Amino acid sequence: xxxxxxxxxxxxxxxxxxxxxxxxxxxxxxxxxxxxxxxxxxxxxxxxxxxxxxxxxxxxxxxxxxxxxxxxxxxxxxxxxxxxxxxxxxxxxxxxxxxxxxxxxxxxxxxxxxxxxxxxxxxxxxxxxxxxxxx
Length: 135
Prior knowledge:
Order of helices and strands: HHEEHEHHEE
Largest sheet: 5 strands, mixed
Number of strands: 5
Strand order of the largest sheet: 2-3-1-4-5
Shape: globular
Strand content: 15-25%
Helix content: 25-40%
Number of helices: 5
Region (Disordered): 1-22
């Protein structure tokens, strides 16, 4: 049985295909849970002058960019979050130098949104997740 068949396997007895739950459902739950801590780190990155463009990496395996700030093993969650910066993404070649300016144009205000680079087995992509406004 290959990986694809395992992912789409359904219980034989029901005869009804089970809807595959997207890993993004658990990511959203974790981002909500982590939001205050992530915002704190984002502000720290900006205040300390490290970068005006913090990027957080959400993954379930191991990645070699950024520093772990929230470990899924320690926190009993589904996703580990690492903190990085736009500059590190360019330096490591994840964002091409030619894409730097276009990326800045779509980069949302880090005071209101966390920029998350989500890594899943199928690939990786940027999402912007809003911080909850208190009040």
